[in-house]
Amino acid sequence: SEPAETIKRIDRESVHRICSGQVVLSLGTAVKELVENSLDAGATNIDVRLKDHGTELIEVSDNGGGVDEENFEGLTLKHYTSKIQDFSDLIHVETFGFRGEALSSLCALSDVTISTCHKSAKVGTRLVFDHNGKITQKAPYPRQQGTTVSVQHLFHTLPVRHKEFQRNIRKEYAKMVQILQAYCIISKGVRINCTNQVGQGKKSPVVSTAGGPNLKENIGAVFGKKQLQSLVPFVQLPPNEAVCEEYGLKSTDLPEKLYSKEMFAKMEIIGQFNLGFIIAKLNSDLFIIDQHATDEKYNFEMLQQHTVLQGQKLIVPQNLNLTAVNETVLIENLEIFRKNGFDFVINENAPVTQRVKLISLPTSKNWTFGPQDIDELIFMLSDCPGVMCRPSRVRQMFASRACRKSVMIGTALSVQEMRKLVTHMGEIEHPWNCPHGRPTMRHIASLDLI
Ligand code: ADP
Ligand code: MG
Predict the structure, then answer these.
(1) 12-25, pLDDT tens digit by residue?
(2) Total domains, the chain
(3) Of 61, 68, 345, 368, which is most buried with the most CB atoms under 10 A?
C-alpha cells in the first residue's frame, strides 16, 4: 500500500460514518432521536427497551402511524424526510425532526432493524439495514400498527468512539435518562416507559409516565410524589397564570401575588406562639410566620450569594473529556466555577477538547465534589451564560448548613429577635418558602372581618 504521508481522499463510506458520529453524538441523542420520531408519528405509547444500558441494544417501539411501504427505501437515506419537501415548508415545521439524518446516521453507526405496520397496511414488515442505509432483508412480520426501531451495538463501526462509549457508559446513561425524563415531562398524553436489562437479568424500570394530561402528573410520575411537593418553590417561580392553571392553583394562593416584600418592614410584632411561630400584624391583617423556616431561607440565600467555596488543589491536574461546546461554556464562565471552588488551567494552544485541565475541587467536611458537578454547572450555564449558579449538591450542602444555623422550633425569642427575622424576610429574593419548599408564612385572619 501507499506510504501513510500521501494525502488522499477518505473513502465515502468512512466519511459517512464519521459525519454520522456528529449527528448521533451519544446514547442520549440516539434515544432522543428515536423518541422524537415516535412522537412525530403521533404515538400515544412509547416503549424504550435497553440492554446493558444501551450498549447492546436500544429499542424504541411506538403505536404511531407506522411507515408506508412506499417509504421503506427512503427511511434510512440521508436527507430523506417525510416532514418537509421544500424550503418554504421549513416555516411550518411542527415536528421535532425534519433533517432526515437520524435513521441514516444510526444505520452508519450500528445494526438497525425496523419493524412497522402502517395504519393502512394489513400486515407488518420487518426490515434489516446495512451501514449505508440500504435494505438487506425485507419480510412480512405480524404486528400492530406502529413502529419498532432496534439499534444494536451503537458506535461499533467507529472503533475508537465505541471504546470511549463503553468507557463512559455511566455518564452517557445518566445523561440519556435526564433527556428521557425531560421528554416524559413535556409529552402530555403520551405514555413513555423505559426499561433496562443487564445481561440475562431482570428488566428494571428506568423512567415511566402514565401519559397524564398535564405536566404536574408527569413530573410526579418521573420524580415521585414526595419530590413533587418540594418541586412546586421552584416551579411556582416565577408564577404566571399559565403555570397556576397547569398546577391547579389559584393565583390568589400565591403569597408573592398577594403581598409585597415591603410589607415585612412595616409589620408589627404581636408575639410568639407555641415557641415556634411569630405572630405579626399589618394594618388589619394577622400573619403567622414559621421562625425556623424563615431563618433557614434567609441563611440559605446568604450562603448562596456570598459563599466562595474553598478549593483544594489536586496533586495531578485532571483531564475532563469535555466536548468542544462544553469546553467553551466552561472557559467563558470561569469566574462562576471559581466561586464554586472549581479551578482550571487553560492551555489556549492545546487542541480543542483538550484545552482545560481541572486543578482544584471544592472541599467541605462531609461533601465530595467531582466531574459530575462540573457537568451540571456546564448544563446550567449553557442555558443562562454568565448567571451565577450553584451545582445542586452545593445547594443541598447550603440548605443543610442553613438548617443547622437557624433558630430552632422550641426556642423562645425576644421581640427584637423576632423583629430581626421578619425584617430579613424583606431583604431576600424569595421569602415565601424555605429551601425545602415549605411555606414560611400564612395569612391567619383579617381583623376587619372578626
Ligand atoms: P426526520 O425525523 O428528520 O425526518 P429521521 O431520520 O429521524 O428524519 O426519520 C426519517 C423518516 O422516517 C421520518 O421523516 C419519518 O417519515 C420516518 N420515521 C422515522 N421513525 C418513525 C416512526 N417511529 N414512525 C413512523 N415513521 C417514522
Ligand atoms: Mg427524526
Answers:
(1) 788 778 777 777 87
(2) 2
(3) 61
